[in-house]
Design brief:
The complex is a heterodimer of chains A (503) and B (325). Chain A is mainly α and 503 residues long. Chain A has one domain. In chain A, 75% of the residues lie in helices and 0% in strands. Chain B has two domains: 31-121 and 251-319, D-Maltodextrin-Binding Protein, domain 2 (3-Layer(aba) Sandwich); 125-244, Periplasmic binding protein-like II (D-Maltodextrin-Binding Protein, domain 2, 3-Layer(aba) Sandwich). Chain B is α/β, with parallel strands linked by helices. In chain B, the strands form three sheets. Chain B has a five-stranded mixed sheet with strand order 2-1-3-10-4, with helices on both faces. In chain B, 57% of the residues are buried. The chains are: A mainly alpha (503), B alpha/beta (325). At the A-B interface, helix 3, helix 16, helix 17 and helix 23 of A face helix 2, helix 3, helix 6, helix 7 and helix 10 of B.
Chain lengths: 503, 325
């Protein structure tokens, strides 16, 4: 108990509280700018942490990354420009809600369920860390292969268009992920002698291009849509309690899936959001509403990606294995401040650990008032004339993609992906599936090849190991499900035909 | 008309050449750009940022770190080699500069730089799962010698990465072909350490620092370090020479360099500045806390160091069948 009180005392220091407040504002602003990712926001904070006390240094990282991930949803909902690959799964849904005049409900859901997911994830970190760590360590490359494969199959579930076109987009994404030399053989592929292509295509420029730039191009090609009724922005939190009660079960499922996926290093928030959104649609009572501005998927996926953020700290704190790029940076800061990751951190430095938990919860609580202010400020963009918003977006895309590596090549890449996204959307190919292919592609390939290298070409370990056999079963069940449903409807009589048609 | 234009041009040219000459006398008169070929948030980025911060104190002008990423380090290294040699662009270069050209991925070699100072070197270790039967590196080496080619599996980084070459070099030093232990490529040291703990590998050859948390957690053990002397942060781990009499040392090093024809004035000032940075309390505290290895060589020493590294890494790549030139 003393450790808990000591933890509160550590957090209550004025320098820590100021650090939390300032980094919260910083995270919200950087996260909401298209093209500037949460990772970027965190990396730029590292030199600042040199001069902070250990607890204040960790507080800035935790707070800024949580805020940046949430505020990445803001441009997604208002302008159809997702801030992070994690929000790409439900950007279309949130934007559809904005077009229906429910921007406050969409953004409020993002805020409210992000905060809930963050707090539930933190509780899991507090109560279950050692058990969750065992799960993470039971995952070898075989299990990761199945997991990534399952993630890929979400493409067909998430898309509103025909499954064939969704699969085609995803395969194009997989092809793009083959570019470069970051593959198991270390051999350059599809680089055409261009040194910039050696490192491969990063998801962020692709994401910014296919969503933001293609949106600008569409705006130039089409007449201005009827202006949204100019009205006062309604209450942001008013309907969230209603949503919480109505979609309680999806919310808990999202939290649970987020925690499990977050714990696995390398999977992280992106996959959590996709899997949860797909599950939400699969198990929903009204799947036909998905994609038309229906909050159910937002509830589940929003909770899921923030829950995974918190549980992603489990392998980082216990074994120094980063769950994603943000925790990779955080591990560096932990070492620098003498809070070396490892089991002893939980026993010998218990008060620091409690301080860390308290900061997590505090960050998720102050996210609500600060997020409301941010949403209100950002919503002005809806009232601005389109002709002044679009050039600004284009400028931000260029600046954002240049900022990550001071590289003109990535700016051109954004442009290329913009044209690609425009052409794809015009022909009914979902761009979200393309992004999923790029994000998951290298994970599927690397884990498949390294597994085969380890087993000397034997495929049996993919099915022998206990966890991988379960995941393989799930994958095949999901693959064969449509076939089974079709056969069920076709042969034992025609009475279930209407049910199958609704699929 | 042409005459005046030409004269104006000549005048402008003279002014341009004169300006650096004047500036050299009291370098630096304005902020210096410091290139980093790797992304913000990584290990090299952390090292270059602490050096930049401390250099600013030593020479009195800001050093602005610019991450020039892309192409697995090719883009950033090439950008530094091609920068104007006016003394206002320097950068951090890493061991990859002595590997990329052997793989035929770039024309740029260490000869395209003016070395200013070696600041850090992380030697590889040999890590096994805590439940592994090998108690010391000699037992592991015997098991490797007794195994079929390709039977044992090791990892630590991608195919052809620095830790892969460390394995190849170690096997060669034992008189074995470089491919005797199969390399399992991984996306960096962290996934390799995780797979080691999950029981998927026989050993890893990444730096001890990268496996430190797993070692602290009692999931892995480090048997030896491929360095000339024991590491300050891990004094209980023997060197290869102590443990099995093999004199093999390598590492992932980082140093500061400028483009060729770097002004002599700036070179002298940088050399002195880096020397003071390396000896400073702040630098030592930072590097020890992060677990980065402290190795130093002055401008000339860094040049000789890179020449030697280029030969030894090239040999390892050729023996592992990774070299193209």
């Amino acid at each position: 108990m003393d450790a808990v009180i000591e933890g509160f005392r550590l957090v209550a220091e004025p320098d820590v509280l100021i650090a939390i407040f300032l980094s919260a504002i910083y995270g919200l602003v950087v996260g909401s700018l298209p093209g500037l990712s949460a990772t970027m926001a965190t990396a730029l904070l590292v030199p600042v942490t040199f001069w902070l006390s250990p607890i204040a240094a960790i507080a800035t990282i935790i707070t800024a990354s949580a805020m940046a991930i949430f505020s990445g949803d803001i441009p997604g909902a208002l302008l159809r420009i997702p801030g992070t690959p994690a929000s790409a799964a439900y950007t279309d849904e949130a934007y559809a809600m904005t077009r229906k005049g429910q921007a406050e409900l969409a953004l409020g859901a993002g805020l409210w369920f992000s905060a809930i997911g963050g707090i539930v994830g933190t509780l899991s970190l507090m109560l279950l860390a050692p058990a969750l760590a065992e799960i993470a360590l039971s995952f070898s490359t075989y299990e990761y292969f199945w997991l990534a494969f399952l993630g890929l199959m979400c493409a067909t579930l998430v898309a509103r268009s025909s499954p064939i076109k969704a699969i085609a987009s995803m395969l194009l994404g997989l092809l793009i992920s083959c570019i470069g030399m970051e593959n198991p053989a270390g051999t350059p592929r599809f680089t055409f002698g261009i040194p910039d292509l050696l490192g491969g295509i990063e998801p962020i420029p692709a994401l910014v291009g296919v969503f933001a730039v293609s949106e600008v191009m569409r705006a130039m090609a089409t007449a201005e849509p009827p202006k949204l009724p100019d009205r006062k922005f309604g209450s942001i939190l008013a309907n969230q309690w209603m949503l919480t009660k109505k979609y309680q079960w999806p919310m808990w499922r999202g939290n649970f899936v987020g925690i499990i996926i977050g714990v696995l290093p390398g999977a992280g928030a992106d996959m959590a959001a996709w899997v949860s959104y797909a599950m939400s649609k699969r198990f929903s009572k009204e799947p036909e509403k998905f994609g038309t501005g229906h909050p159910e998927g937002l509830v589940e996926a929003g909770a899921s990606n923030n829950a995974s953020l918190a549980s992603g700290w489990v392998p980082s704190l216990l074994f120094g294995i980063p769950g994603d790029t943000i925790t990779a940076i955080a591990i560096g800061v932990l070492y620098m401040k003498g809070l070396n990751p490892g089991p002893t951190l939980f026993t010998e430095r218990a008060s620091s650990m409690y301080a860390l938990y308290i900061i997590f919860i505090l960050a998720n609580i102050i996210m609500i008032p600060l997020g409301i202010v941010m949403i209100r400020l950002a919503s002005r963009v809806l009232r601005a004339p389109r002709s002044s918003v679009m050039p600004l977006i284009l400028l931000l895309c260029a600046v954002g993609s240049f900022a990550t590596g001071s590289n003109v090549f990535s700016v051109m890449l954004v442009g290329v992906f913009g044209c690609l996204g425009y052409a794809m959307e015009k022909n009914g190919y979902p761009v979200a599936a393309l992004v999923l292919g790029i994000v998951m592609g290298s994970m599927v390939e690397t884990n498949f090849i390294t597994s085969l290298i380890k087993s000397d070409g034997d495929v049996l370990p993919f099915f022998e190991r206990p966890v991988s056999s379960i995941l393989a079963g799930l994958t095949f069940a999901a693959l064969l499900w449509p076939l089974g449903a079709w056969a069920w409807a076709r042969f034992p009589g025609r009475r279930r035909r209407t049910a199958a048609a609704a699929e | 008309m042409t005459k005046t234009t030409r004269r104006t041009l000549l005048g402008a040219g003279a002014a341009l050449t004169a300006a650096p000459a004047l500036a050299q006398a009291r370098w630096p008169v304005r902020p210096v750009q410091m290139l980093c070929p790797w992304a913000a948030g990584g290990g090299t980025d952390a090292v270059v940022r602490i050096i930049a911060t401390l250099l600013e104190k030593e020479v009195g002008q800001p050093f602005n770190v610019v991450n020039r990423t892309g192409g697995s380090g090719v883009v950033g290294h090439a950008a530094l080699a091609q920068a104007a040699p006016d003394g206002y662009t320097v950068g951090i270069i890493t061991a990859e500069i002595c590997m990329l050209h052997w793989a035929g991925l770039t024309e740029v070699t260490y000869r395209n730089f003016t070395p200013l100072g070696l600041m850090n070197n992380d030697p590889p270790g040999i890590q096994v799962n805590n439940t592994s039967p090998y108690r010391d590196v000699r037992q592991l080496a015997d098991a490797i010698k007794a195994s079929r080619p390709g039977q044992m599996k090791a990892s630590g980084t991608g195919q052809g990465g620095i830790w892969h070459l460390a394995l190849a070099g170690w096997l060669q030093a034992m008189g074995l072909p470089a491919g005797h232990v199969r390399w399992v490529p991984s996306n960096g040291a962290a996934p390799a350490m995780q797979d080691l703990a999950a029981g998927g590998l026989d050993f890893t050859t990444n730096s001890v620092v990268e496996g430190r948390a797993m070692i602290d957690a009692g999931r892995a053990r480090s048997l030896a370090v491929m360095a000339t002397e024991r590491l300050g942060v891990f004094p209980t781990i023997p060197t290869l020479k102590e443990a099995m009499g093999i004199d093999y040392a390598t590492g992932a090093w980082r140093g500061i360099a400028g483009p060729l024809n770097f002004p002599a004035e700036a070179r002298t000032a940088m050399n002195a500045g880096l020397d003071r940075v390396f000896k400073s309390r702040e630098y030592n505290e930072f590097m020890n806390a992060r677990g980065f290895g402290l190795s130093y060589a002055d401008a000339d020493g860094f040049g000789r160091y890179m020449a030697a590294a280029d030969v030894s890494l090239g040999d390892a790549m050729k023996s592992a069948g990774l070299a193209r030139s």
